[in-house]
Amino acid sequence: MSILDFLFGNKSSDNNISDTADVVDATPRHRNADNYAFVDVEVGMKDHKVHDIGSLRHDGALFHNANKAELATFLQDIDYVCGHNIVHHDAKYLFDQPPFTTAQKSQWLLVDTLYMSPLLFAARPCHKLVKDDKLVSDDVNNPVNDCKKARSLLFDEIAQWNMLSRDEQSIFATLLFKEKEFEGFLSMVNAFGLRMLLTNRPDDREDIDYPMLERQIKKQFAGRICGHADIVTMAMKHPCELAYALALVDTNDYRSVTPGWVLYNYPEVEHIMLLLRHRRCADGCDYCNTFLDIHQNLKQHFGYSSFRTYDGQPLQERAAQAAADGKSLLAIFPTGGGKSLTFQLPALMDGRSVHGLTVVISPLQSLMKDQVDNLEARGITDAVTINGLLDPISRSLAIERVQNGDASLLYISPEMLRSNTIERILMARHVVRFGIAEAHCFSAWGQDFRVDYLYIGKFIKKYQEHKQGSCTVPVSCFTATAKQKVVQDICDYFRHWLGTDLELFASSASRKNLQYKVIHVDSDEDKYVRLRELLCERLCPTIIYVSRTKRTVELASRLSRDGIKALPFNGKMSPDDKIKNQNAFMSGEVDIIVATSAFGMGVDKSDVGLVVHYDISDSLENYVQEAGRAGRNPSLSARCFVLYADNDLDKHFILLNQTKLSISEIQQVWQAIKRLTHNQSHLQCSALEIARQAGWDDSVADIETRVRTAIAALEQSGYIERGNNMPHVYATGITVRNMDEARQRIASSSLFDKEEVENAVRIIKSLISQKYISRAQDAEAESRIDYLADILGLNKHEVVSAVGRMRQEGILGDTKDISAFMQDVGNERKAMHKLECFAKLEQYVLSNIPDDALRISYKQLNDKAVHDGLEESTEKHIRTLLYFLVVKNYTRKKEDGIQNLVISRQADMKNTLARFEKRLNICRFAIGWLYARAANAEGEAAKNGVVNFSVVELLNDINAGNHSLFYNGEELKIEDIEEALLYLSKIGALKLEGGFLVLYNAMTINRKQMDNRVRYKQDDYRMLNEFYKQKIQQIHIVGEYANLMVRDYDAALQYVQDYFQMDYHRFISKYFKGNRETEIERNVTPSKYKKLFGILSKRQKEIIDDHESRCIVVAAGPGSGKTRVLVHKLASLLLLEDVKHEQLLMLTFSRAAATEFKQRLMQLIDNAAHFVEIKTFHSYCFDLLGRVGNLDEAGDVVKQAAEMINNGEVEPNRISKTVLVIDEAQDMSKDDYALVSALMKANEEMRVIAVGDDDQNIYEFRGSNSRYLYELTQTEHSRFIEMTENYRSLRHIVDAANDFALNIRQRIKSTPIISMSQEDGEVRIVKHPYEIQEKKVYMYQPILEDVTRLLRSNASKEADASSRKKNETISILTQTNEEAVIMLALLHSHNIKAKLVQSMDGLRFWNLAEVRYFLKKIDQGIKETKSPIIPDDIWEAAKQQTFQKYATSQALPYLRRSLQVFEQTNRAKYYSDLREFVFESSVEDFCDISKSDIVVSTIHKAKGHEFDHVLMLITHPEHPTDDILRRYYVGMTRAKRTLTIHTNGNLFDSLKSAQHLYDAQAYDEPNEIVLQLSHKDVNLGFSKPHKDAILCLRSGMPLTYHDHCLCLPSTGRDIAQLSIKMKEELGKWELKGYKVTAARIRFIVAWKSKDAPRDEKESAIVLADLVMKK
């Protein structure tokens, strides 16, 4: 067919186009519209070379090869060369170079179908052959086929052109005739003669008659554009844009949109649309007065006759008018004050006037859902949301509706702006406004919690730059509460990014219909009782706010148990549960909801009569916002209560401290980025990978949020720039039925080698388990590539490779996996009944729509349906159906504000009903299919009524069966299945949720600072630090409100008003005078600060207040409060210095010390202490080596760990710390110091706090040296502090210790110790001769006499009521274990009770029989649970069984004490922690001396203790080394009130403050002594055969001694034998006249020789006490 025939059919040839065209066209050549050819070229994406050419000539001839010369011949004598995008694409590659000459190119005109298509097919659904800017083609890379498609399109364009009125043709021809994109088409259709020119000269292309053109346009579009629009200027400057805009105006469907490629190439189209139909003219015209009048639109869309006023002020109207006028604004209206309408109304107006899209950025998914649902309930289908709550089908539909113009309102979260998908669909739409809902979050959350709030301005700026248009996109910000500073923050932000000033519309924060009250409570139980009373007093819809997610569930459950039905709501619940509980509350099914602050933001429930803050809010803004959920109906009087306890603010401070990002953490992220980029500027990786590289471990809460916050901080300071997220989806479904099939397929595949099979099996196992976890809290976590790699210990590339090969093997694929929940529906019959009811109603509605339209109201339609027999019809059901029919393009619907409807079909009745029938049959099949699968489900899936399936699977099952679901024998498509599932979800027959994805979600980071030496500095952190400082102040401010409300109601209301209206600094000055301004900068309440730090001395406070020094070395003298300072410093680090518990490491030299610090820290900061890592040097190093060690195996483990750190063999997250605290730092050995140095080197910014006393280093024998404490003082930015105030000892004792310390040669401290006591105390040095008449003098007896004297003194004090105190403690300190045991025996022989604390060399706590039995019972219990945490029932059962079995054992108290300590210091009983605790502990650690009046101890074991009276037994050493002298110094400084030293040497002669006595009496050894046998004292091998007999014995049982053997009294059977060495020792005592008179079991322990084979079982041995008498 020729063009002429197509255009004019059999009309006369007088209409030959070429004649007219030649007259108009200035070119000399005569062109014939029939002389055309179509050309299409395929160009390589990478090399940009021509790979193929196709051409179709008017005579049907075809050309198909890549030879340009042959193409030139083929196009010889052609007048019109046609194509799709030929002007700017094909022609560039074909005709701009030889063999085509200028002369040859001038012979033809180019006809481009691309540019004419949106002009002639502006109305939806546009042209079927065009998608975006491309031709829809069945064949890929077939240029000849594309030529045929382009010819069909051109013929349709010509036909459409001919359907235009002559005036419309004239307008388009006049505007476009000079544009090369349109020139060829206009020539071909003989349009040049239609131009409106000033002259009749046919060769004049310049002289357009613009006034005539303006008159023609205004006449043609009267009532559809502004009557005063400056058409002349638009036509002169932007003729193409004006043409496209007019084409869009000419459509009847406001949902039609200009294609994105047109907006990109002609950005001023949007501006022209605004000038034509959005800017209200000053003089008024028919169009502006009707379509741009906010009052008429308010009535039409919402049915309201007037806007709401606030205190008589028409602020809502003014804000709506400002938005309608295109201004940017900030509206502060009270909760329930109609903020939503203020942006919804202009958005709906803009959607209809300029076909624009309003993007509303909202913080919460529930808020978005609520807004969309509310509009839907009004019959408004223009709003959609794209968020994480959507199932994949609904998400795809939402995106499609935005793209094709169905949506005028899009709700998204700020994080979605980082999505390429969102960016792409927004760039393709005319966005007329960005709205920020809950704008106070911009200031409150933008710095840390939701950093992408700060990306909003940058995104809008990028959007505007991409559009290249002349108009800026206005913004609307809305909030219920905002103080002056927040208002200023928001205004400054948009002024900075967009150069936009926000017009402010602010109402008062006060609400006349709300009454406030704060009730002070004393305890949690009191709080609960008061809550119940309030709920019983006011039976109405109630919101109870709590601060923690866990408490929502606990409190709701407790209320329900008490007969008050309540539901929880928190951000960590599954999306389905959140929706379910919110809907139950909104519908009135449940009246009470217990929620975190996430609930209610934007939720519109008008009848809430009571809001109770069970935990007070963390800011006054949040409190007013949350309390404002009550009484949204202005006529309802509502009450707002706060149940306030004194410690409520502490919870907020703790939470803030856990979530705030410290400067050191940002430094760690910056270090990680530097390492990951390797001096490159570009990086793509996930937040988790950055966290791991930064050294953050799993204990970091909300790890990804924190990484993004750190990145935002680095971006603000210019170190980096963050781009869009770059998600990569590897698979959307698992195709294997189970793990067995997956394992078999992997094992038999040639794609995996032997090593890779195991990894692939582990990966698919994790994916399968993740897929079937119903409603998991992090449902997508383990299906992410980075998480899989992290969990399975693989690198990312290994996981990606394995996943790729599993796709090749068909184990993973794109099957669109999805979950359906049916538990809320009930059963299949009920679901099918619901479907059939809706189907009948839908068929009824569709059948009642006449060919033109159905005009009716919802109520009338429902009444009609009920009257005609559809008794289950409701207005709500009709709304639901019409919403679905509109969004799926079955019908169109217009609606006014009073719910009058105009419903029309999009297709004829036959096709509409056929489509309906097909969907209905699919739905019927799907319900049966899903319920059949639900019946076969197992475990959690069966319990929850969940079916995991894939859309492809359902489609295949339908297509494979003999189901008469459709006509014409066509097979169903995925789109048909998705439509049916969407329908079932919409009508409530099932609930769809989540897709299954295997993805990798990478962030794009561009590094701007390339110098690796540059560090993130304190000055960079200043803004974030200021933000956190204000957060701290806000908590104090809301606490002050609570206290004020208790005292003075009116003053509290004035306080709130001042907070929101006064300048912030003036407000602080008014209400927090003097030192209170300093108090509110601290992250604790004043009372808690006083409790924590008020009791500290000035010097101790100095250490607490030092937040800057890189290394603080404290030389702490005895009694100076070293332990107190360290514990309070730990509290300060956690509460005041921004140190997270996972970033803090404390190292000690004994498990007992670690336990004591944990206990004391718990007393100070409660449960927060549980999370602090306090370990011994050895256990920390065993952790680094990945082992659970014990004291026997300690060896060189510290040395190994230090070497591994230095060699980079330890993962960063294992050693990444910001603060290292070292207790007893004087006891560091060479290896210990090497470890500390390695940690400091690995963590550039790490602070070290080392506390010790060089004078108390008494472990030189194991390598300790206080020189390493001194080394720390020499590090850069270190600070050395001496703590010399002694709060323990009276003055004379301190003076004596100072005098004695002068004898120690190697010292660090130079300042003498100062007693802070006013009492003198007493120091006695009792000197004894070494021997008298060659007979050695023993000092046990005189010490016994001193003890007796002290006991008499204590007794007399007790008798004197006026001076009655707690029993004063007495300690006898010896140098050796033997001396201690003999002294104890002497005391016992005189009926004096005393406890022994001594070193027990070779005896390990974990080897005690009682301990082994307990561990065995624990092992047996957890073997079945396979849980890392020991369940309470197993723990208690193991205790009960052990205590019962060893009830008579005298060693049982050690185990009891150890378990008590473990329970106190470990809230969750991890099995690994228990093993570490037991393996590292010594028996003496659990010798409880707290209730003992007299303690006998070696000096070593007395370190760290203090006693009222100390008696020392000092035998003069042969060589008094510094180590020995320090040991004596330690012993002396244990005394508080009196110190008595019995010695036979002269080391103490120089003590000036002491009484020096000489006792010349001869004292013999005691008549009775006790020898305690250790491992080296018994023949260990002898006991091997007697294991069973020994295990039946108990500590404390008597044994019979004979001939160096111990036997059972009952049987005479020998079970133990003394070692050769002990036999010799016993012989010496026997020479002195002593004989063994009794023996008793001290301990039964497990033993195994170190040289024994690995599989050899342990033996049991007896360690006994031998009693010897003269």
Offer a quick outline of the entry.
It contains 67 helices and 54 strands. The model is unreliable at 6-28 and 772-782 (pLDDT under 50).
What does this structure look like?
- Helix 35 (785-792) packs across helix 36 and helix 57 packs antiparallel against helix 65 (1522-1532).
- The protein is elongated.
- It starts with a helix and ends with a strand.
- It is built from 67 helices and 54 strands.
- Residues 6-28 and 772-782 have low confidence and may be disordered.
- The chain is an alpha/beta fold.
- Strand 10 (383-385), helix 20 (392-403) and strand 11 form a beta-alpha-beta unit.
Write the layout of secondary structure elements.
Layout: H1 3-8, H2 17-24, E1 36-43, E2 50-57, E3 62-64, H3 68-74, E4 80-83, H4 86-94, H5 102-106, E5 109-112, H6 113-120, E6 130-131, E7 134-135, H7 143-163, H8 166-176, H9 180-188, H10 210-220, H11 231-237, H12 239-249, H13 260-265, H14 268-277, H15 286-291, H16 294-302, H17 315-324, E8 329-332, H18 339-353, E9 357-361, H19 365-377, E10 383-385, H20 392-403, E11 409-412, H21 420-427, E12 431-436, H22 440-444, H23 456-467, E13 475-479, H24 484-498, E14 503-506, E15 514-520, H25 524-537, E16 542-545, H26 549-561, E17 566-569, H27 575-587, E18 592-595, E19 610-613, H28 620-627, E20 638-644, H29 648-659, H30 663-677, E21 682-685, H31 687-694, H32 703-716, E22 720-731, E23 733-734, H33 739-748, H34 754-771, H35 785-792, H36 796-808, E24 812-813, E25 817-821, H37 828-847, E26 854-857, H38 858-867, H39 875-887, E27 891-895, E28 900-905, H40 909-935, H41 939-944, E29 946-950, H42 951-960, H43 974-987, E30 991-995, E31 998-1007, H44 1022-1047, H45 1049-1061, H46 1064-1071, H47 1076-1079, H48 1086-1093, H49 1098-1105, ...
Parallel strand pairs: 1-4, 4-5, 8-13, 8-14, 9-11, 9-12, 10-11, 12-13, 15-20, 16-18, 16-19, 17-18, 19-20, 32-36, 32-37, 33-34, 33-35, 35-36, 38-39, 40-47, 40-48, 43-45, 43-46, 44-45, 46-47
Antiparallel strand pairs: 1-2, 2-3, 6-7, 21-31, 22-31, 23-24, 25-29, 25-30, 26-28, 27-28, 41-42, 49-54, 50-51, 50-53, 51-52, 53-54
Helix pairs in contact: 6-7, 8-10, 8-12, 10-11, 11-12, 12-14, 16-18, 17-18, 23-24, 29-44, 30-31, 30-32, 31-32, 33-34, 34-36, 35-36, 37-40, 40-43, 44-45, 49-50, 50-51, 51-62, 52-53, 53-55, 57-65, 60-61
